[in-house]
Amino acid sequence: MAGKARMQHTKISKIAKIIKKYHNFIITSHTNLDGDALGSELALYFILKQMGKEVKIVNQDQVPYIYKFMPGVEEIICSAKLDKEFILEIENDSVLVVLDSSNLERIGNIPVKTDKFSLIVNIDHHPSNTKFGHINYIDVSSSSVGEIIFQLSKELNCEITEQIAIPLFAAIVTDTGSFRYANTRAETFYTAFVLVKSGANPHLIANQIYSNNEISALRLLGDALLKTEVDSNSNIAWTIVTREMFEETNAKEEETEGIVDKILSIKKVQVSVLFKEIIEGKIKISFRSKDDFNVDLFARTFGGGGHPNAAGCQLEGDRDDIVKTVIDRLIKALNT
Ligand code: 5GP
Ligand code: MN
Q: In the chain, what are the domains?
């Protein structure tokens, strides 16, 4: 533990000091918002508000339907809803806090100019983080950025209100696959314990995230499962969601959540892959693994990244060629 603590270049107390010193904050996170990105943003928003700070959350993408229950979502400014040319004016001496993003490109097109900030603070848990901030707090042993924001709230002696507990619990639940993934540690349960004591209701939160599907999402899952291929020599499974499948089922882009995890549950399968056609010629790929195979390192060979057991990348080209190239390369990697 001491060794790990020493490997941190920045201490959480330094982040707390910066927060105390500055007054104006903009918080952002990555495109394709997930529970950890949104939950961490909203919790930090309410922590800063509690301290009397000026704070705004800006994102490229809209809040997916399943996360709309989180307190404060209506305050989030989103590029997708704004005039293309709109740029938010920021005060002098403003701080940009970037959460859950392994590099600065991951935040996409947000309506602020990143070079206008006095300071960029980068808080993340991805091993591939490029340390793009002036201040970087990267804890790869943390299950989620939510867990880091919880530690920060302690450092700031902040009261964990329900508005903070709910998004933090949602962040942790989603990034740990409901406390099932290898990133779940004793500290995760301790944090969850405090959050539940502070007003996060696990049952209600789980219902909002996992039992709130449109039938279209289930039809898309059904189609994707029917198309699933398994290579039982290499123990991999993969499937594709094409534009045609989105149109036939009437499902939304965000409704592919969970497909790649479902096919990883096949007996003996060690690695699963989902190919998702965003637009013709552009494929988003998700990788999941059960044990030792490091999909973060594998995704990096395609310009992506993530965590050892969950990673992704984006490729452009013919969809059948992309599927073949990635699966061939994966089979090779698994057999060497
Ligand atoms: P998902 O497959 O759910 O989109 O992402 C799984 C993990 O991989 C997340 O931690 C996510 O941030 C990361 N990830 C997904 N796509 C990319 C990508 O294109 N580049 C990088 N660096 N990370 C990605
Ligand atoms: Mn995360």
A: 3-210 (3.90.1640.10), 215-334 (3.10.310.30)
